[in-house]
Amino acid sequence: MIKTQLHDDVLEVVIDNPPVNALGARVRQGLWAAIADAQTDTAVKAIVIRGAGKLLSGGADITEFGKTTAEPGLPELVDAIEASAKPVVAAIHGIALGGGLEVALGCHYRIATANTKLGLPEVTLGLLPGAGGTQRLPRVIGVEAALDMIVSGSPISGKRAADIGLVDRLAEEGTLLAEAISFARALDAPRRTGDVSVSADPAIFEAFAAQNARKIAGLDAPSACIKAVRAASELPIGQGLEKERALFAELVAGTQSKALRHVFFAERAAAKIDGMPKDIAMRSIDKVGVIGAGTMGGGISMNFLSAGIPVTIVEMAQEALDRGVSTIRKNYEATAAKGRLTADQVEKAMSLLTPSLAFDALADCDLVIEAVYENMDVKKDIFARLDGTAKPGAMLASNTSYLSVDEIATATKRPQDVLGLHFFSPANIMKLVEVVRGAETAPEVLATGMDLARRIGKAPVVSGVCYGFIGNRMLTPRLDGAIEMLVEGATPDQVDQVSVALGMPMGPLQMIDLAGVDIGWHRDPTRIESVRDALNAAGRWGQKTGGGFYDYDEKRRPSASAAAQAIVEQFRTEAGIAPREITDEEIVARTLYAIVNEGAKILEEGIAQRASDIDVVWLNGYGWPRHTGGPMFWAEQVGLEKVVDTLNRYRDRLGPGFSLSPLLAQCAAQGGSLFGDAGA
User: Domain 288-467 maps to which CATH number in 1.10.3720.10, 3.30.465.10, 3.40.50.720, 3.40.1190.10?
Assistant: First the structure.
């Protein structure tokens, strides 16, 4: 865990706790002992602390949060490093995040490589830096720069850290240790951050909060971070540290941090495939084919191009192909205009794209993804053609949102090579990919699909085969309930505000308007079987036509629509439905608790591997607020008994197809958890 070596008069202390040199109990104890022993060792003039492997430290051991931890705690350790009578230098390479940076801040001097990443990302876990980060960082780089780093949680480079005074000097990685030892040897005395005072106009904090109001609204951790940094500007270090630790204790016991820590572990668990051997051989994916150059096909292609993987994109008509390639370029150029890509990176990505009208151009691809519209006959025809075109061992994937991957696979003589790769729109931005395992999908095909999704920066989740898989199957009762309540007397804004109040970016009706009211419409304006049909027949297809359930201005901002309301009222009258008052509780039951109920069914059917996977789907694909942990975690915080009781009370209004999940009912009755013995 901790290794030491004396270089003449400089003691090298190495944190060696792979894979990320986490600062767990044994590491802290080892560091504490090494620093203490050095104080009385007359051979030691100075100390250098570094990390083994590729980094200094990824931070604290998150599994210890909220529990009684072994002494010394990280705050006490950092205090002890700063209290050293002999100079301590942090030699930083790779990353120094969270507690790793706090250890470096406790050191008297810092030397780093230019490409090192330094940051305090605790806010992403609903916390603040609790080992002195909010007190020492402002004293080193100033209040405004510290606020940016701590509240955003975003890391900065070693070069940027040198520019703002966070590190004293830069070194090449190959000479970092030697330069750190030389630097330490030349030092005469410690330089303690705690001896520095920092002041700031109180208006800075108010202005910062106002400027970031939209990002931090409703979140506990960012406001606590601002309070802690403000304390650094108003209190001596000792009192500031006490304030920081009190705020940290409040956050770690709070529901938001528990939810965000759940998300942290859920996203890592989702990458694991139950029953899959760790040493399974992946299939090599060096070239990808995409069928369809529309919105989804183009977006899917960009993921691979951005990861340096060549793509052949195939369309039936030259015009459609040209339009798709043009859209890909425009998307890249728009990103470059924002400074996120260089012109060279844009050209490199585009150089990897081969557009073609020839289906045979897919013959040398290792993976082919079909991304055409949702029609089973069309998809089966494509897969039958692929069966005779794709090389042996090539993986064949469908981007279907709802249809059976098993039925699609029957069109081939190699069902073991077929899987679903369900990307979410816009596919080049949204993180979620549902990796759908068919009945005959080979284990290595599934494992390769999951690994490839991570390679291109996605959050993959394994799903079994059912209508809509995990996410869209759960979405269906939410959308149905929202539309039905309009007919029964609710307004669109009333329905949507319940979801917005929870923390979603928009409600279900705004989401339909964004996606397109006409998606899945039968296109017969004389066949009016629902309010959605009536809106479509009137040309109200959502944002793209300037009106759906809402009216939209030129900036696509929604407002209440008299025209939509008239359509709803006409449909209501013709259906013989008398409007009534609908409460927020009923909206919660029919749009949110209904999601949880369907998720529980998906879990008991084995469509999802674990409840936390369902949370990952909704967090990364549907805008569910991260600080609530996802729908299944949120339901347990609300109380499963309350969820079931409310669903039962509104059972008659949940539609003729509603049935209560036996698993949900059992967990509620017995005080159990959808997450198994470990709970949420």
Answer: 3.40.50.720
